[in-house]
Amino acid sequence: MGTAELVDLRSDTVTKPSPGMRQAMAEAEVGDDVYGEDPTVNALEERVAGLFGHEAGLFVPSGTMGNQIGLRLVCEPGQEVLCDSEAHIVTYEMGAAAVLFGISTRTVVSDGGRLDAAQLVDQVRPHGNWHLTATAAVAVENTHNRGGGLVQPLNQLQALWDWSRQAGVNVHLDGARIWNASVATGVDLATYGGLADTASVCLSKGLGAPVGSVLVASAERIAAARLWRKRLGGGMRQAGVLAAAGRYALDTQLDRLAEDHEHAQLLAKRLGVDPATVQTNIVRLDDVPAPVVAEAAKAQGVLVSQVSDRRLRLVTNLGVDRAGVERAADVLAELLDR
Ligand SMILES: Cc1ncc(COP(=O)(O)O)c(C=O)c1O
Question: CA triplet 181, 187, 192: central angle to 5 degrees?
């Protein structure tokens, strides 16, 4: 089966730039961004910071770098960041906070990734006690990847934020898919941005850019972030060709996330998954013989992600149209006898 016929639902990171995006990249005005002279990067940073109501932004190569620099801005070596045990920052980022920055992470087991502000607050350890590792920050993931794309409840985000202001604890948002949360709920990006000290948002997931994330925060923090990015080897030169893809994605591919969400609903209904558990573009299939089904689906041109021996994950994305989603549903329904 040729790749043109593949229906790839492994992730929303597998999308390829469209002809329009490639043209925008080719036409981008560029300069040396390490000198701060790339007009396209500067415009993108300013635009994304504005969308989230923050003073400044920094274009970074990946969500991982955005998260890790973000954590370093809100936490000193020897202090800890608190997050849920399924968070991307402690599951898929290779222990970076510890390896790179001497930041300790402590996790709480949540209800499927759902934020429970009181549960986290309960675990926070104070500053200035010589027995205890101080909790400098709490990290929140919205939408939650391993939580099946769940949107964090706004009242919990607000409660955490309100508490954090009087407690002197920072909040970092891993907003790799915050766009999906906003499109799904109608809560605007500035509202989410206003409930975090630092936020990393990805252009290379559902938005479909090939590379890039933006870290937003105060101007002072972003000035420090620029140094961390350089130290980590993330200072890029004529990066405007990449930023142009991000700008194009924001112009043309943000609103269409609703289509991915509809496609996820369609898959859920066809595959016997409770549609209420599917809030955005991720569908989890639990209690299935994951390796066998993934292999058999692949043989029929449908690619899915195997999260564990008993769990598969499907992520709708701009590379899979309605016909592709229906074909995947047919193939998987037959394999799963649903
Ligand atoms: C929730 C979340 N945060 C961060 C990242 C990291 O992004 P990147 O792969 O660009 O490093 C991902 C990647 O899938 C993610 O799902």
Answer: 75
